[in-house]
Amino acid sequence: MVAVSGYAMACTNFIVSKGASVNGSTFITYAADSHTRYGQLRYHAGGDHPAGETVKLYNYGSLKFQIEIPQVAHTYRVVGFINEMQLAIGETTWGGIKPLDKGNAEGIDYGNLIYLALQRAKDCREAIRVMADLVATYGYAEGGESFSIADPNEVWIFEITSKGTYEKGAVWVARRVPDGYVCGHANQARITSFPQEPAKWNKKAKHPAISSRHLDCINAPEVECVYSADVVSFAKKNGWAAYTDNAKPTDANFSYADTYNPLTFSGLRACEARVYAMFNRVNPGMKRYEAYAMGNKNAERLPLWVKPSKKLSVHDVMELMRDHFEGTPMDMTQDVGAGPFHCPYRWRPMDFEVDGKKYVHERAISTQQTGFSFVAQCRSWLPNHVGGILWFGVDDTYSTCYCPMFCAIDSVPLCFREGNGSMSQYSETAAFWLFNRVSNFCYLRYDAMIQDVRGVQQELEGFFVGEAEKLGDTTSRSRTTEFSDNCASLMMLAWEQLDHRLLEKYIDGNIKHEKEGRIETTPTGVVRFPQQPKYPDWFYRAIVNDHGDVLAVPADAR
After folding, report:
1. At what angle do helices 477-506 and 446-468 cross, to 10 degrees?
2. What DSSP string describes 289-302?
3. Phi and psi, residue 55, nearest 5°
4. Are 151 and 87 a contacting pair, CB within 8 Å?
5. Pair type for strands 78-79 and 43-44
6. How far is it, in rounded angstroms, from Cα 475 to Cα 179?
């Protein structure tokens, strides 16, 4: 149960293939749910580099110096987690088994692996090759990680863990999500068994999988699975190998997830449950996996990917990131923990004990400690600088606004810029602090106030999507920069007005009347007496059960 608390700093990714979207876009999503992660966009200008130039890498989490490696001759422009070629990458961490969860003593961490791949690769397959080469050459200083990788045509899930102190490098598997399907991961390894190549790779034959021995063949379109050559043998040598069919423990039944990140209660309830929540919203046949999501390892296992019942728009994908298990037994808006105003958030720690028995709070997709999140959209029918959009938001996914950052913009808007505030330094011009001010006020009377927030959110996002779709193949890169900057400015202005309006309307637990979008007053200018909604009956009863003897009105005073 202690492990559940560890997932409080976890992340969520969803992956949408080209054939699963309404217009042929590919999507990946990412929520960085760290209590210490600040909402900002890293920017790398890209360009040519002289021979002999090196790159100093600092750990993505601790910021401590890690390793220095040679720079490549040319790097691509990168805006956050998407580059100018419409390559996008996200991640979730799962740690894995104890012998490997600390990583190699030296090497590259997962954050720098993402940024180096974005700087050096133009599509999913090249990104996989770059990442595989980097960890093989310099080592991997991390435990288990799942990556989402998207380009305008394909989406992949790539899972990796180090070899710990045993050997330099990592063991990994990458699988292409079939066209028409969606996938997801949330701090639990998800690839079980996978296609494996024949004994000898035949470039002329159509084999769905290759090992890292044949990475030069990764661009063959028939290749749909790539894996490190020793992913099975390394586990067998050390006695960790697990299989999807224990009655037939063959290499073909080798399970990557069960070997390097065996399922636990917390891995199900705090992690797989989030993938279940997304699958449940896109496909009506997911009820059969509910017991698994709630922690039963013996129940039917959630598949790696599912086919949605309808194709998804960019707005649909944004909404998938906004979930508190509504409509399931884990619904965070309905139990007493939500309080009288149905607030779907629980302060940490996630696990607690009462009378010697242990319990957990749910870990939903939408959570209060999100530093930032994004929906990356890649579109093959447009030039790269127009086709790729990082829909970027800060703070809780349910109350954020996804703002379009085109993939080749010349600069990042001030509200998202590195150095504009931090987790320990407030900034009036930083989106992170403005959005947190609004959301934290909403937690006081959530069910009423979130309606105001969602109204502004939906209006803005609808406008941004509509305007972004008007930018076509003749749009210049400078125009995309101007567009992204204007959207960010409009978002900040709207949220500042929302911040003021919420304070005006909900101060001191009252709810003021509104008329035509303004606080209603009498003809003489006096504010109309506010609404004062009662607490729900169950809450009054709880008060009486706890303190009724003190609060009771004497019979002769009634």
Report:
1. 160
2. GHHHHTT-TTSPPP
3. -125, 125
4. yes
5. antiparallel
6. 29
pLDDT reading at 6 higher than 70: no
- Residue 187 neighbours by CB under 8 Å, 6+ apart: 7, 10, 11, 12, 92, 93, 94, 267, 270, 271
CA distances in angstroms from 523 to 148, 294, 513, listed in the order given? 58, 56, 14
| 315-371 per-position pLDDT tens digit | 999 999 999 999 999 999 999 999 999 999 999 999 999 999 999 999 999 999 999
Instruction: State the distance between the two ends of the chain, measured CA to CA, in whole angstroms.
Output: 50
Provide the pLDDT for residue 2: 35
Mean pLDDT of all residues belonging to the chain: 95
Residue 293: pLDDT band (50, 70, 90) is very high
CB-count burial class (<10 Å; 0-12, 13-18, 19+) for 6: middle
Q: For residue 455, count other CB atoms closer than 10 A to its CB.
A: 11
Q: Is the pTM of this model over 0.70?
A: yes
Choose among 320, 319, 327: nearest CA to 344: 327
| Residue 116 tokens, joined | 């180096």
Nearest one of 207, 250, 246, 203 to 227, comparing CA atoms: 207
Instruction: Say if strands 182-185 and 209-211 run parallel, antiparallel, or are unpaired.
Output: unpaired
> For 490-501, how does the pLDDT look when each residue is reduced to its tens digit (9 = 90+)?
999 999 999 999
